[in-house]
Design a protein that fits this description.
The chain is mainly α. The chain has one domain (1-64). The chain has three helices and no strands. The protein has helices spanning 17-25, 29-42, 46-58. α1 (17-25) crosses α2 and α2 (29-42) crosses α3 (46-58). The longest helix has 14 residues, at 29-42. The chain is globular.
Length: 64
């Protein structure tokens, strides 16, 4: 069965996007959050915010 990307239900800070990506890639959620913050600051904030909002609307919540 292939892996699917879901928002996390267990390790949520804002909407579970970064924790869901971390679960999907089997890495630490703090690392994903740190990369997201750095990428947002480096790209003058709006692309990172836009990506996060789009991801929050598109990625489904984990049903389990």
């Amino acid at each position: 069965m292939p892996k699917k990307l879901y928002k996390s239900r267990s390790n949520v800070k804002i909407d579970g996007i970064c924790a869901g990506i971390a679960e999907y890639t089997d890495c630490d959620p703090t690392l994903v959050r740190l990369i997201m913050v750095i990428a947002t600051l480096v790209t003058s904030i709006w692309p990172g915010v836009f990506f996060y909002l789009v991801a929050a609307m598109i990625i489904p919540r984990n049903p389990a």
